[in-house]
Fold each of these.
Amino acid sequence: MSHLLHLDSSARAQSFSRELSARFAELWRAAHPGAGYTYRDVAADPVPPIGQAWTEICDALLRNGITDPHGYASVVETPEQREAWAVIEPLLAELLAADVVLIGAPMYNFSIPATLKLWIDQVTFPKMSLAGKAFVVAGARGGTYLPGTPREPVDHHERYLRDFFAGHYDVHDVTFLHSELTNALVDPRLSPRDPDRIASREQALLAAEKRAAAGTEA
């Protein structure tokens, strides 16, 4: 049975990335009746940062050549490591159970929210592979960072996530849905671009609908 893990990371309770991720989740669940669904809001309920004990677990995994996540707990020994594992275990279990991972990820300062990075750090270990899973990123950006635009070179949002999923998780089935120019609503300098903002939002919602209906494969 398919399972969807749905994360949101926007600091805004009402945001474009949340709108996009909610739309995708709604349609995906309608297309997969009876499928599993897990929701986690890492902005409202932040994941703690990694610490010394987390690094010790990573070192032990490397030293013992353990790459299967189901074997990670075998290297947990000290009270501090057990405390760290108590944070890691439920987050990792949610990730491993998912066939599709949906991430609401706005662009903050050219990159991803710190709350999302904290989650990524807690669930990523040496030489782990999540090949076979699909990732969908519902993004929102205040400006536009599309190919050919002046700010394309400073897009460390999509580029970081795409490189991370491929390099750390061996996942290449990744779909990005972007609602761009959202600051046209509040920045007078961008207000002439509001029609472009509206068009971008509509295109992103349409892409979310098509992707949700497509199933697990992109």
Amino acid sequence: MTQPVDDPVVLFERVGEVAVLRLHRPDRLNAFTVRMRRELEAAFDRCDADDEVRAVVLTGSGRAYCAGADLGAGGETFVAEPVDGGVPPDEGGLASLRIFRSTKPVVVAVNGPAVGVGVTSTLPADVRIASETARFGFVFTRRGLVPEACSSWFLPRIVGIATALEWTLSGRLIDAEEALAKGLVREVVPQERVVERGIELACGLVSGTAPVSVALTRRMLWSMLGAEGPEVAHLVESRGIYERGRSADIREGVEAFLAKREPHFVDRVSDGLPDLFGQ
């Protein structure tokens, strides 16, 4: 069934300082399409541009989070034409990279089954939680594919190489408790509370914090996973301390602490972030 043109497949809702993005093809278990990727990217662009949005929660409509790629085209689903004579970019990878580049913390509230790109595209998030009904499947070898959505980079860093290999080679389904035990998700909650809990966690990440410092910290920690050694981190952190040390935020943060009051940070993410990586 084709989604009507004017019917969005990614819903946007504001709950205070949190933007809730909901994958919305419930009749297809929120199966992933090119249109969904584009709307997801647009939603993250909207969040990054709005300084009133401090964090993002991703979830799904209906009983599933995302059943993976829409297989409506059958065996031709993954056939793609070259782009400018080269390999076309993986659509799931484009979604993952956009989430990775978010300047706001991202929490995924996995409300039900998350399979294929439905799980791999959650890996760039900062926190994942799952409902008791959630199931995860890195099923690519069972479809004749290989992992995508940058998961060969993200997954071993989250759960370790041994677990990543077991899950991706076997392609078997993983229940919420195993996902919790291996560190894929932070906690498991009743299905009716998963979005509410996701919003609570998102608020906890940004309450009383400086938006620019949060954005830079997120970028620094992800980037340092591939650093050659602590000297690289020292250089990046030194640049960060230098840049933030001259900001209005640092004065406000210190003065608020000394006065035992809540800080009111004024620096805005939308004004741009300093380059700490010498690029």
Amino acid sequence: MRILLAVASRHQGTWEIGEVMAGVLAGRGHVVDQRAPEDVPSLDGYDAVLLGSAVYVAHWLPAARHLADAFADELRARPVWIFSSGLATQPANSANSPLEIAALRERIGARGHRSFRGRLDRAALTFAERAIIAGGRAKEGDHRDMAAVATWATQIGEELDLLAATPATPARV
């Protein structure tokens, strides 16, 4: 299957989570195209989509939200999974707005949402971002669990393999 992996990332931590997913899925024989959401002009040619975003101030980045809104109908027509990466010391789901994620899942028909811990390098942050992080008491360092990311990507790959093996699944051009 041809998979779009759209990842909104400000400081590359979430992008690197996407790279792990892309590697796992490519290793299973899928063709994975990892792009920033603002670089996705169309979903034509993609059989499945993974859409992820870093979480800032309890929300996904605007580019990821825009992609979901702009292509909501097309996303509902194919298998979609979403993921978040949030404050380094807590899973993104405790930083996400639960109602926002639930509404997003329903709007685009996502099969699942997974939250991952993030990476925090204060030196890479803007003054405003450092001020926000100070209130969250986040700890410096890389707190991502790339093994958990790989496990989730493997589960998605297994589901995609089953979908690809089902004769009723229409081929996309």
Amino acid sequence: MSHVLANTVPEAVAARLDAGLAALDIAPDDAQRERLLGLLALLHKWNRAYNLTAVRSLDDMVTKHLLDSASVLAQVRGPRLLDVGAGPGLPGLVLAILKPELDVTLLDSNGKKVRFQRQAVFELGLTNVTPSQVRVEAFEATPFDQVISRAFASLQDFIGLTEPLLAPGGEWLAMKGKASDEELAALPDGVALIERRALAVPGEEGARHLLTLARRTD
């Protein structure tokens, strides 16, 4: 089914995705490329009816959604990954496609966005993704090795709300525009910044960063 979807994406847009992934040093196999293009086609189609994202054009979706999500692939090890505030499933769906050994849970309280997640999982044949419609405060699960978010509120809220969901020795991955020193200064005493990494998203001029955080062990 993803093959049919992928064929609806214009060649120029597919070439933009190929070039961006190559710039990120990511080499998807044919099935992964097909699924990424299928996800793009589904997102574009659903967005016209359900307003899932403010990003409208296929070109912009390639940059701001697919490549932005893929830019953190090297820092995602899982094996169990929780994507909090996943919206239409980003970055979780992209990461699950590119790293099929991951076990990804998508968490969002917005019904129409989780319906899209479920449809994408079904149409793309993804067996390693579990969409969940629930507020993070009410979510109960076996703790995860990594918890990621691309569009959550403040770092303080992200960590405070998901602390019970992070396994011992686990990591928080916070995708941010500019990482403000004020936010970092407000981190709980028991949490440390492990790495602040600038992300070079092909085609994206705005600043992007990935903050990796963990519980202090000292």
